[in-house]
Design goal:
432 residues, Rossmann fold, 20 helices, 3-stranded antiparallel sheet, 3-stranded parallel sheet, binds glutamic acid
């Protein structure tokens, strides 16, 4: 089983979407189940409605989960597992206050040493624990040997016991910490491979250690995806608007193109333009570069244009408020002028909006408007043009400038002979 485990605490980032896509593809390739687990244990950080928004985005990208779980529903399981670890003396109650811990941390910083828990409460006797009425957290005792694992992208990883440290698994309010809840949930969901961002690489030895202490010995494979850099070479963050999936969709990028681009990023693929179904034929995690990938908006624009060319024209027309193959084809004529729905939309709107009734070519436009209203239906632009030239007596730029303005609302654009087949059935509406 594979899982996508978003936190409903922020807008979906392209890094999250890439993780979801890869998990989905690998699950399909292996014919395993793909689940979504909302990591909503950190109540203060959850944002109302974000879970729904994330699920809607997955739907839009056709990443259909076999099941959706909410981590908070597993709270009693997390608490039982923590009690088991306490009973077996693999974990201990820690009464250190946040202030005391902060002082330890500051001392470590001042000595330029990595912070490690002092171990004070691990040495308390049972009597001392029982006599203490202060709130306590639960810490898992650090391992006694290094934790090693093979990452499918990053290679062999080895973490010393001190790096893992005796970390907190249950907070003082008796809710699990991220590493504990995640490790337990991956275990109970029988996850076989965890694909997630590199920012979680240091969490993995802790999670392996939790499961080891709980006696779970089934191997779980890991693949940590390198971070995505922005165009100036810094880690992409919320400040980069292109990092938000919502923003990219609002900018008029197609889900198919965004998915294609994210699969392409830092990867060796047999083709550059493909659908997710095609990618399932050859996708191989081992081909993902272990170095950070650099986001390139122009490349995404190129990929988007290629998908706009390929997409079913009737489907494309829906983004423009139509359900007509001709309008989809008309949009495709504008791909030299724009690469996204947002860029092409004003051009299509200009064709259908009222044309100015003043200006340099006003008189000629009026003549043409009347002629078009009474003209027979012509199949080709050549026949249409000859008829109009004859009936209005206009020619040269006195014909071509006003006819373009009348039909497209713009002085420039694709050849009218290319546009004509797709607008010919809308002429009355266009010149109204
Ligand atoms: N909830 C974590 C996040 O959104 C992901 C945890 C994981 O994939 O293990 O960053």
């Amino acid at each position: 089983m594979l899982r996508f485990a978003p936190s409903p605490t922020e807008d979906m980032h392209i890094g999250n979407l890439r993780v979801a896509i890869f998990n989905y593809i690998v699950a399909k390739q292996r014919q395993e189940r793909f689940i979504v687990r909302m990591e909503d244990s950190d109540k203060e950080r959850n944002i109302e409605g974000k879970d729904r928004e994330i699920l809607d985005i997955l739907q839009l990208f056709s990443l259909h989960p076999d099941d959706v779980y909410y981590q908070s529903h597993n709270l009693t399981i997390h608490q039982h597992m923590a009690i088991k670890l306490l009973e077996e003396r693999k974990a201990f109650a820690c009464f250190c206050t946040p202030e005391e811990l902060e002082a330890e941390r500051e001392a470590a910083n001042a000595g330029k040493k990595a912070y490690r828990y002092s171990g004070t409460c691990e040495r308390l006797s049972d009597a001392e624990v029982l006599a203490n009425e202060r709130p306590f957290t639960v810490r898992l005792k650090k391992p006694d040997k290094p934790v090693e694992f093979e990452d499918l992208i990053k290679g062999r990883q080895c973490f010393a016991p001190e790096e893992i440290d005796s970390f907190v698994i249950m907070r003082a309010d008796k809710r699990p910490t991220y590493n504990f809840a995640c490790a337990v949930d991956d275990m109970i969901h029988d996850i076989t491979l965890v694909i997630r961002g590199e920012d979680h690489l240091n969490d993995t030895p802790k999670q392996i250690h939790v499961r080891d202490r709980l006696g779970y010995d089934k191997a779980m494979a890991y693949a940590h995806l390198p971070i995505i850099l922005n165009e100036s070479g810094k880690k992409m963050s919320k400040r980069d608007e292109a990092s938000s999936v919502k923003w990219l969709l609002e900018e008029g990028f197609l889900p198919e193109a965004i998915a294609n681009y994210l699969i392409l990023l830092g990867n060796k693929t047999p083709e550059e333009i493909f659908t997710m179904e095609e990618a399932m034929e050859w996708f191989d995690l081992a081909k993902i570069s272990s170095a950070p990938a650099r986001f390139d908006l122009d490349k995404l624009r190129f990929v988007n244009r290629e998908h706009m060319k390929r997409i079913d024209s009737k489907e494309l027309s829906r983004a423009f408020g139509f359900a007509d193959t001709s309008i989809g084809e008309l949009v495709k004529c504008y791909l030299e002028e724009g690469s996204t729905i947002k860029e092409i939309k004003p051009k299509i709107e200009a064709i259908f909006s009222a044309k100015p009734d003043s200006g340099e070519w006003h008189e000629q436009m009026e003549k043409l408007r009347e002629a078009i209203k009474h003209a027979p239906r012509y199949e080709t632009f050549d026949e249409f043009k000859s008829h109009l030239m004859e009936s209005t007596g206009l020619e040269g730029k006195h014909f071509f400038k006003p006819i373009r303005l009348l039909l497209t609302g713009s002085e420039h654009g694709p050849e009218l002979s290319h546009l004509y087949p797709y607008i010919k059935s809308y002429l009355m509406e266009i010149v109204k």
